[in-house]
Design a protein that fits this description.
Elements (H helix, E strand, L loop, with lengths): L9 E4 L11 H5 L3 H14 L4 E13 L2 E10 L6 E7 L6 H13 L7 E6 L2 H11 L7 H4 L5 H13 L3 E6 L7 H12 L5 E2 L10 E5 L2 E2 L4 H18 L14 H8 L10 H14 L10
Parallel strand pairs: 2-5, 4-7, 5-6
Antiparallel strand pairs: 1-8, 2-3, 3-4, 8-9
Length: 294
Amino acid sequence: MLFSFSEFIITNFDQLSNSPLTLHPIDVYIQQPTYRLALHHIASSFWHRSCFIFYINGLVQHLNQQTFASMTWYEVFTTIHKEFSCSVTTNFIFSTKAKLVAVIVTLITVPTRASVSIYTDSQNLLTTYQQLSVSDTLQYSRECLKFTYIDLWHILFQLIKFNSFTFTIHKIKAYANNIYNNYVDQLSKECVTQEPIQFTTFTGLFNVILQILNYPISTNCRRLIKESTRIKDFFDFFFLKWNAKYRQLNIDWINTFNYLNSDASFYITSLRVSSKKAQQIKFLLEELPTLEHL
């Protein structure tokens, strides 16, 4: 069994604060001294400027049965370009998380009241930002639990609010041979095995932080519990004694269950469909008393 539900959710109390940041954002949010030093060096070269254009990218790769993620940004407003790239932690990882981390790392390097334009090929990043910008989700913890990476989004909006940024995200077309987008894509591929950048998150977001296996939950909690229950139920089924022979076979269980559920509605419970599915499973597992099995 992966874990028991008694240890599924652990609470960790955090002080709620809505006050402006008193330290530099790099010192507030970035944990590793090496990344702090590198970002402070970049920030010192930005302090006299007020306009910035960043191309960002986030990448998720699966190598040798391991998952790696990385982020990159490239600043192009002036003739002297700056860049930064590093690996990203793979907890609840999708490319949107890596790209969101890239946006945050751009904002912690620019001075207050700056105008920042972000160019990305991620429609999901743009859509979520627009949705959170016009809603009051961040004011209510219950609503926050419905959003993926809400801890990182909270940091982003904190930075925009307390530093008075003029902030815009622009969607660019992927695979359109944009030289800057191609460059950040290449940089992301080169840094996937570096040390992941670590954030201090949830500061001021919740009084109570939900965790699983000592990792803060940064995805939709209800969906996570639902999927975890499905996984637990599958392994309960998989390790039944009479299924021992199937554990020796390379069975594509995902497509098997997709086929069995292909004619089932997600919104209606049908006894006829349930009975048909039960027969299919029994026939698949050779548990029906057919002539062939007698």
